[in-house]
Specification:
Helices cover 40% and strands 12% of the residues. By secondary structure, it is of the alpha/beta class. The protein has three domains: 53 residues; 130 residues, Nitrogenase molybdenum iron protein domain (Rossmann fold, 3-Layer(aba) Sandwich), CATH 3.40.50.1980; 160 residues, Nitrogenase molybdenum iron protein domain (Rossmann fold, 3-Layer(aba) Sandwich), CATH 3.40.50.1980. The chain is elongated. The chain starts with 36 loop residues before the first helix and ends in an 11-residue tail after the last strand. The relative contact order is 0.09.
Length: 408
């Protein structure tokens, strides 16, 4: 900020038009000219008085300018921050738009890459770096900050991010995590991006953080159009197909409160674990046999078998499925008898691309209603539009749905 000062001093009464006041340096006041010494001394004293007044005036003007500068800086600071209300209800003030992001949540990282903000991510988890960087090239070479359950505070602080994007529940508690980073001026925003029922809200939050709100809205409308297509095909179903959805762990069911529950709900099926009182319960093997589902959908964990981007080992996936259907007394289950047991990649199970998983599930359960729809083609188009990537890898197995046979 440049400061400009102007000072006008009137000439003394009766002085000629050409006469002007001039400021005398202090050392000149000590000279003793031979003539008119008294007059010179008076003039010197007057000059000192004027100099003193000018100094005071300059100090006053500088103080005013400083106050104005601070007010302007405060106004600019307010203009360059935004307050986010995250999914947990916390109000978080962050720089706007955020330029340096640490993301402990691979699902949020995927959304940010789709919005064109992947280059702002400076730190990710080891899982994100290992499993997602092939598909989302913006994540290659990013700093590793630990795991999503146990991120390194020291590493995060060292990276000096504007904000950290996390899941909404994990250990340590979100409140504790945020309180530990607050003294370093680092904000924490919870945007899980793994539940289809609140995915739009999470995407809007991320779009607001990075100043990509229009792009975020376009992304929301894109996947919602796929969901609307599914719902239009499911209208008028008289009898829903009984489905057992199993999460990452053995016999962990997709009950109410889990992301998988919402996926099956939108696929229009009768979820046999839908009325369980807790989220993601571990069920007894006999319970599944007794419920006798018509279709079984198992999500593949990377700890058991790799599926998704870059996964090309079909034999390994087939062997995983064979072990699943060979569980004790599972040969009594209708889904096993009729070959309607499907394995699905976690990348399209409850993640930002869950709309693709819902489309697959709906077609597996109601093949006649979706016989003209190719989920793989829709997935291929999604990846090209939002990530400029070809679809490479096995995301579901088997791909084609099996018709229900009549038990004799």
């Amino acid at each position: 900020m440049k400061l400009h000062f102007s000072l006008v001093i009137a000439s003394p009464e009766g002085a000629k038009q050409s006469q002007k006041w001039r400021l005398l340096p202090r050392h000149k006041c000590k000279l003793r000219p031979p003539r008119n010494a008294a007059k010179k001394s008076a003039l010197c004293n007057d000059s000192l008085t004027i100099n003193s007044l000018l100094v005071k005036l300059l100090v006053f003007l500088c103080a005013c300018a400083l106050l104005s500068y601070r007010a302007e800086a405060d106004s600019e600071s307010k203009k360059n921050t935004v307050t986010i209300t995250d999914v947990c209800g916390y109000e978080v003030k962050i720089p706007f738009p955020a330029r340096r992001l640490v993301v402990t949540n691979s699902d949020a990282a995927e959304v940010l890459c789709a919005l064109g903000a992947g280059d702002r991510i400076i730190g990710v988890t080891a899982h994100t770096a290992r499993m997602c960087s092939d598909l989302f090239s913006q994540l290659k070479g990013k700093a590793i900050i630990g795991s999503w359950q146990n991120p390194s505070l020291e590493k995060i602080i060292e990276l000096e991010p504007d904000v950290v994007i996390t899941y909404d529940m994990w250990r340590p508690s979100q409140k504790e995590f945020a309180e530990q980073l607050a003294p370093f001026g680092i904000s924490v925003v919870r945007a899980p991006c793994y539940r289809i029922d609140r995915l739009a809200e999470d995407i809007k939050i991320l779009g607001k953080i990075v100043g990509k709100e229009e792009k975020a809205q376009e992304y929301i409308e894109y996947y919602q159009e796929i969901l609307a297509q599914v719902q239009s095909r499911l209208k008028g179903i008289k009898k829903k197909v009984r489905v057992y959805g199993e999460s990452y762990g053995d016999y962990v069911a997709a009950s109410k409160g889990s992301g998988a529950y919402e996926l099956l709900k939108r696929a229009g099926v009768d979820n046999i674990a839908g009325n369980q009182p807790i989220s993601s319960p571990r069920m007894a093997p006999e319970w599944v046999v007794d419920k006798n589902p018509e279709v079984i959908i198992k999500v593949a964990s990377s700890g058991w078998v790799r599926m998704g981007c870059g996964a090309l080992d079909r034999e390994a996936i087939s062997n995983f499925r064979n072990r699943l259907v060979a569980r004790p007394v599972w040969d009594r289950i209708e889904a096993v008898k009729n070959g309607r047991v499907y394995i699905i990649s976690a990348e399209i199970w409850t993640d930002p691309r869950a709309a693709i998983g819902i489309l697959y599930a709906a077609k597996w359960c109601y093949p006649e209603l979706f016989k003209d729809i190719d989920p793989e083609a829709i997935h291929r188009k999604w990846l090209m539009k939002w990530h400029r990537k070809e679809l490479k890898g096995i995301y579901v197995y088997p791909n084609e749905p099996r018709q229900q046979s009549v038990a004799r």
